[in-house]
Amino acid sequence: MKKCIVTGKTRSVGNKVSHSNVKTKRVLRASLTKRRLLNPATGKMVAVVVSNRGLKTLKKWAAEGKHYDLRELAKAE
Q1: What is d(CA 6, CA 13) in angstroms, rounded to the nearest whole number?
Q2: Which residues does residue 13 pair with via DSSP β-bridges, in sequence order?
Q3: What does the pLDDT look like over 45-54, one tens digit per residue?
Q4: What is the rounded CA–CA span in Å between residue 50 and residue 64?
């Protein structure tokens, strides 16, 4: 199953509710994409699954100068 390495987002389950209030199960998919990103710890490109919110978080970390390793984030999940 796909999971964001930064935020941990994955799919969730909810109800689809019709006009007559009949409830059926549905899947709510997170906005996940497979991206090749530059790992700041090694200077090499790494393919990771990340959400759009996770991309914004990584961009913020880079602007703040925070040190992180994409390989370690991927292993932690």
Answers
A1: 21
A2: 27
A3: 999 999 999 9
A4: 20
CB atoms within 10 A of CB 10: 15
In one letter, which amino acid is 37? Answer: L
Q: What are the backbone dihedrals phi and psi of residue 72, each rounded to the nearest 5 degrees, phi first? A: -70, -40
Non-local CB neighbours of 27 within 8 Å, separated by 6+ positions:
11, 12, 13
Average model confidence (pLDDT) across the chain: 93
Q: Map out the domains of the chain with their CATH numbers.
A: 12-76 (2.30.170.40)
Closest CA to 23 of 12, 13, 11, 34: 13
The structure's pTM equals 0.79
